[in-house]
Amino acid sequence: MVSSDFGFEIINVDELSLQEERFLPSELLAYARDENESSFVRDIEEHLTLVYQLLDTQGHVDDVRHVPRVIPVTLFLKEDGLFVLANHKNINLVKKALNRVEKVDSPKHLLLSLVTVFSKQYFDVLDTISEERDKLINDLRKRPNKSNLARLANLQSGTVHLMMGTKQNFEMLTDLQNIEQDKENTRNEKIQLQDAIIEARQLSNMCSLNSQVFQELSSSYNNVLSNNLNDNVTTLTIISIGISIIAMVTSFYGMNVKLPFDSVDAVWVLINLITTIITIMLSIVMYIYVHKEDNHPKHK
């Protein structure tokens, strides 16, 4: 709930006229329009300005195939009010977060409350990712097929986006705490800042943990796929050697060379039978030799 004792406005920078832009610092507008802006806090014209990485929760929160994204939003704090500079991508997210803000008594209290709500929106997505991660681990143990590995890559990519966003937010709030420690803030503002930092730290740690888990999973199953590929290549090599033996033996009977049994009409049946038996025996010997270390691992 936003108090009427101070001003508050959500400004859509995509719809500003040239005349309206004159009343806002050009540097502030540049930050607000940069879709790849990193989180930071600083003073612009002696007014506190911060950029926060807002989670894009529009339409795909529960869809595990969707890669979570973060969108920067700019907040500009003045003595008499708070201005949120949004665009067409995040303005609805800001309005939705505003509805979850409890009663505040100052512009700075509102800013910190909004940041806390922004952070809490990450938890639902992280819970979904954690559930999908546990399910994926079980599926990969049963069968590391292309579909499961694609899910792993998708979740890993989404977690990296979340990790970078939450890390930036936590570092920004830590910088804000250093800036605010010498200022006279109300009790509610101090409590809200601590709450925001706690939420951001927890999110950053959770995302880092998920990222490490996915990285280890990816590394493990890359090794599994590499070993499977080596086994397949080895098997194909053995088959190729076996086929080459048959081709080598039978090729002599197409040359002008005196060979045994070449006057017998049905000799090709006997030759094929003998060479096939020899090929199978050699293939078995090669297969056993190649896989003997797998069947009898070395013990230290």
From TrEMBL:
The keyword Transmembrane helix applies. It is a multi-pass membrane protein. It holds the Pfam family CorA. CDD domains: EcCorA_ZntB-like_u2 (cd12827). Gene3D superfamilies: Magnesium transport protein CorA, transmembrane region. GO terms for molecular function: metal ion transmembrane transporter activity. It comes from the Bacteria. The keyword Repressor does not apply. This is Magnesium transporter CorA family protein. One of its GO terms (cellular component) is membrane. It is found in: Membrane.
